[in-house]
Design goal:
Shape: globular
Oligomer: single chain
Structural class: alpha+beta
Bound molecules: protoporphyrin IX containing FE
Number of helices: 19
Distance between the termini: 74 Å
């Protein structure tokens, strides 16, 4: 056991504090099998990765790293910064579930704080538990929710699709649809960006401010510890305006509720997320924070799933045609929640898109105490590794969901049929796992499934208008670099 910490030479042992060594020994830990060779303290790797980001190649780049250095390795990443990178489902399961309490997402608070306050997406520990307990019941109720929420916005979207075979970028329409439906569901007031210019004053500028602040938050995230030096007046203004807009809606809602309570007429209102939350807290800041967090988590993600699905199907006539056969069994009627769940091929298509193109392709956690990951150490790279308090661990969902040992030799191919037999467990995590699993999973899959079915019901042909193969653009979440430019042919009466 040459790599066993017990037998390590003095030089390596000196890197560990005394108590760390005892902990590592007690837990049978080994050194991570591979540390990537580096120059300039690992700035070479940081620079290459940032370059890959700029060229929209970061996911493939990470996959190549793993092909070369294994499923788990140490990555020197700047002076005094070594990151553990993994795509091993056992490690990811430990980080997210079995050792959930040993890790936190700490790194998000500073970059996102000005927009998101202390909401669910950026908080840890008790604050996160409180947010989760507050929000969760609304999503349980929503899971069996009324399909009419989506129909209104999907039918608006369909009106924007040209009927003469000219090119349309569905990605743009999906982004508008998801902010319209999310704001209606969350605030009770839609941004109505797909409407006919009838949106309430301020609503579409909210959509713009929110997008600017979101995009700039990513820059801040990438700056890591240097975020404290970030100065950008556009970011500050866009964040303040977004918060002001939501805060005003929260204030109005609370005032209305107070008035209704006086009159004794609180019940009987139609379902609005904010109204439900307001039954449990009247803390204006808390409500503003949570609404903005959910909007951020839920808007681009669902739009990306839809855009990538249409981008991909437009190049795969066989898949489009199988999906149509399934959809046509509805004989034109609007699908119910149960219909959507029972449409096997539709579910396979969405599963396969989320496998090949996970909308959150990579993620970061930081150890908040000394802990252990189950694999990656020792001479074979299969033994437990020691993770010191403060250690950053990055996991690539993109690479994991393409591992041939779980998905076969054709794991890089788009093949919905593989889901007939596939049961990948922790190797498939588009919505994350463990206590922080995506709270909006059912909402997203219902909205996306419903939208796909309604479009398929209206159009018989789908053609790609992009010669290039899919290229991902990784911002905060994944989107399609080339949009979803297609032409659709309406069903002949
Ligand atoms: C295809 C669509 C979606 C995908 C792929 C997706 C994926 C994810 C993933 C991977 C996470 C974990 C992030 C992390 O912990 O680092 C997450 C968290 C979250 N998602 Fe989603 N999501 C989607 C749609 C939605 C929607 C529609 C909503 C709400 C309406 C939503 C609300 C949330 C919230 C609130 C969290 C934070 C949960 C927590 O930290 O406890 N998501 N999502």
């Amino acid at each position: 056991m040459a790599n066993n910490l017990r037998g390590k030479k003095k030089k390596k042992g000196a890197d560990l504090y005394f108590q760390d060594r005892i902990f590592a020994r007690k837990n049978g830990c080994f050194e991570t099998k591979t540390t990537m060779p580096s120059y300039f303290f690992g700035f070479d790797h940081l620079w290459k990765l940032l370059k890959a980001y700029g060229e929209n190649e970061s996911m493939e780049f990470a996959q190549r790293w793993h092909n070369e250095f294994g499923n788990t390795f140490n990555l020197p990443f700047g002076v005094g910064r070594t990151v553990v990178r993994t795509c091993d489902p056992k490690n990811v399961q430990a980080i997210l579930a079995t050792k959930f309490n040993d890790f936190e997402i700490a790194v998000r608070q500073k970059p996102f704080g000005p927009l998101l306050g202390n909401g669910i997406f950026v908080s840890d520990g008790k604050a996160w538990e409180h947010s989760r307990a507050l929000l969760r019941p609304n999503f349980v109720r929503n899971q069996i929710s009324d399909i009419a929420v989506y129909e209104k916005h999907v039918s608006q979207l369909i009106k924007h699709i040209p009927l003469d075979g000219s090119t349309v970028d569905l990605q743009d329409l999906f982004l508008r649809m998801t902010i319209d439906s999310a704001t209606e569901f969350l605030f009770g007031q839609s941004t109505d960006t797909l409407g006919n210019g009838k949106s309430k004053t301020g609503n579409s500028s909210f959509a713009e401010n929110f997008s600017i602040s979101q995009a700039k938050s990513l820059t801040r995230l990438l700056l890591g510890p240097f975020v404290v030096f970030h100065r950008d007046s556009e970011f500050v203004k866009a964040s303040e305006e977004s918060r002001k807009y939501v805060r005003r809606i929260v204030e109005e809602t609370l005032e209305q509720r107070a008035l209704q309570a006086e009159k004794g007429s609180l019940e009987g209102e139609s379902y609005v997320f904010l109204h439900e939350l307001a039954k449990r807290t009247q803390d204006e800041k808390m409500l503003t924070d949570q609404l903005l967090n959910i909007l951020l988590a839920g808007r681009d993600t669902t739009a990306a799933l839809l855009s990538i699905t249409f981008f991909t199907m437009a190049k795969r006539e066989d898949v489009w045609s199988k999906l149509r056969t399934e959809v046509l069994k509805l004989e034109g009627r609007q699908p119910s929640f149960e219909d959507l769940k029972s449409m096997t091929y539709l579910q396979w298509v969405m599963n396969e898109i989320l496998r090949l193109y996970p909308i959150v392709p990579f993620n970061i956690r930081v150890a908040n105490k000394n802990t252990v990951l189950p694999t990656g150490g020792g001479p074979c790279g299969t033994l437990p590794i020691f993770i010191r308090k403060g250690q950053e661990v990055q996991y690539s969902v993109y690479t994991m969901q393409r591992l041939p040992e779980f998905f076969g030799a054709d794991s890089n191919e788009f093949k919905p049929e593989r889901w007939e037999k596939l049961r990948p467990g922790w190797a498939y995590l588009p919505f994350n796992g463990g206590p922080r699993v995506c709270i909006g999973q059912q909402f997203a899959l219902t909205e996306a499934g419903y939208t796909i079915v309604r479009i398929v019901q209206q159009f018989e042909r789908l053609e790609s208008r992009t010669p290039e193969a899919f290229k991902g653009n990784v911002g905060l979440t994944l989107s399609s670099e080339y949009g979803a430019k297609v032409a659709l042919t309406p069903i002949q009466a």
